[in-house]
Amino acid sequence: MFEPTIKYKRVNDPPKDIAKSLEELKAEDKQESSSKSDNANKISEDNKKEDKAQDTITGRDDKKEEKDTAASTATSAAKDSYSFTFEEEEEEENDSKIEVDPNDKERIIVTLSTGKQFSADRYCPHAGADLSYHGKVAEDDYPPEIGPVLMCSIHYWEFALEKGGRGGSGFTSINACPVDVAEKCATSAEKKKLEW
After folding, report:
1. Does pTM top 0.85 for this prediction?
2. Above 70 in pLDDT, residue 44?
3. How many CB atoms lie within 10 A of CB 135?
4. CATH of the domain at 152
C-alpha cells in the first residue's frame, strides 16, 4: 500500500498570545464605546438645555435642525466600534466532486458537473499527494479535445481525464477512465503490470 509522504500541520489555530491580546483589545473597545456613548448622552442633554434657552429667542425651525445634528452625532459616536467579517468561497452545487472510491481505497471517483464520473488513482505519481484532498478539477479551462483535467494543487501537475489520466507530456498517468467502463480499464492496467 502506498503511503503519502506529505505531512499535515494545523495552521488555522491562533497562538495563545494572539488570542489573549485580541481579547484585551475587545475589552478596551467596549470601554471606549461605553465612554463615548456616555459623552454623547451628556452632549445631547446639554444640547437640550441650550435648545430650551434658544427656543424663546429663535424660531422652531432652528431647534429642529439642532436636535437632528445632536442626534446624529450621538448615534455616530456610539457606532464607532470596529467589526470585521470574512467571507469564504462557497462551492456551487453543480461543481465537480472528488471522493474516495468505496470499493477501492487506492482510487478516487471524480464526478463532473455534467454527472459524468471517472475513476482514477488516488495518489499523484509526482510527489504522492492525496488527490482526494489536494485534487482540483478544471472542466472548462482547456479545449474540448483535451477535456476535463484533474490537477494536483501541490505542484500543479495536470492529468487529462478523458485521455486516460495522462499528464507530464505523456510520461506519467493516474490511470483514469470513465466509471461505466472501469472494468475494462482495470483489466488493461493489470496487463501492464510487471510480474516479478
Report:
1. no
2. no
3. 22
4. 2.102.10
